[in-house]
Specification:
Elements: E1 5-11, H1 12-16, E2 25-32, H2 38-57, E3 66-73, E4 78-84, E5 89-99, H3 106-118, H4 121-125, H5 132-140, H6 144-160, H7 173-186, H8 195-207, E6 213-214, E7 230-233, E8 236-240, H9 248-259
Parallel strand pairs: 2-5, 6-7
Antiparallel strand pairs: 1-2, 3-4, 4-5, 7-8
């Protein structure tokens, strides 16, 4: 079965307006008309990714000055570099095929969450890209100044936190976005705020991570309030982001050192 793309959604930090300066990573969600749900996606995605990789390997845009270099393929995505010969620019692209769950429609979204409840954890993971549009919309609408603060916290994480490895999972870019938004909401969601003061609050949140209890009811309603420590994906009630990190001790240690810096003593 050949994949037929209905539309493409630009997601990730670039899609949400929170990418660091000079960042050239792009998440592209391919919404396929030929796939109806996570089970069908799971059964066909390996073949779809292979077909897309084969197409890109033929270098269809070489005449326009572009080259595609395949970097890796996982069970969910194809990652490649787009290299422009004319401007010497390299863009890393994560291409994620998914099905159209029509998640911007309230009833369709509830239907998806209901189906996810019946899936096992592995099948449920194939719904992640289907709700990427909700993740993007949740953040892209936030004030420009807040997105600037998110970029500042991401820069802090990139500069001071250890890198993620196969055995060490550090906070993702998305987790950092959500913790920053949570701290902003705790002070009343102001359109104007003192950046240094709010940055300090975020460092305190990372230091006291065991007390974090973050969730939203914009897209779904929880049947019971979660207990800390919790960071729930606002677009996916089954995506428990706090548990994705297995080295919170290092995060807390770096946050403590940051709070002890002279610049933070104002």
């Amino acid at each position: 079965m050949r994949p037929h793309v209905g539309r493409i959604v630009k997601s990730g930090s670039m899609g949400k307006g929170t990418a660091l300066k000079n960042s050239s990573d792009l998440d592209c969600i391919l919404i396929l008309n030929t796939i109806k749900d996570a089970e069908q996606l799971k059964a066909n995605i390996r073949d779809y990714l292979a077909q897309i990789q084969s197409c890109l390997s033929e270098q269809p845009l070489r005449g326009q000055g572009w080259r595609f270099d395949i970097k890796r393929r996982t069970e969910y995505l194809l990652q490649f570099e787009m290299i422009n010969f004319h401007v010497r620019k390299v863009t890393t692209v994560d291409l994620l095929p998914t099905f159209d769950a029509n998640v911007t429609n309230g009833q369709a979204r509830l239907n998806l969450y209901h189906k996810m409840a019946s899936y096992d954890e592995n099948t449920r993971s194939y719904c992640s890209a289907a709700v990427a549009e909700l993740r993007r919309d949740f953040i892209i609408e936030k004030p420009t100044k807040l997105k600037g603060l998110i970029r500042l916290v991401k820069h802090w994480a990139k500069t001071y936190l250890p890198s993620s490895t196969a055995s060490q999972r550090m906070p993702s870019s998305y987790l950092i976005e959500l913790v920053t938004i949570h701290c902003w909401e705790k002070v009343g969601s102001p359109s104007s705020f003192n950046t240094a003061s709010l940055f300090k609050n975020i460092m305190m949140a990372f230091l006291n991570h065991i007390q974090l209890n973050i969730s939203w009811d914009r897209y779904y309603t929880l049947t019971q309030n979660p207990s800390p420590p919790t960071i729930l994906d606002p677009a996916n009630p089954y995506n428990k982001l706090y548990n994705d990190v297995n080295n919170w001790a290092s995060v807390a240690q770096v946050a403590r050192k940051t709070l002890q810096m002279p610049a933070m003593q104002v």
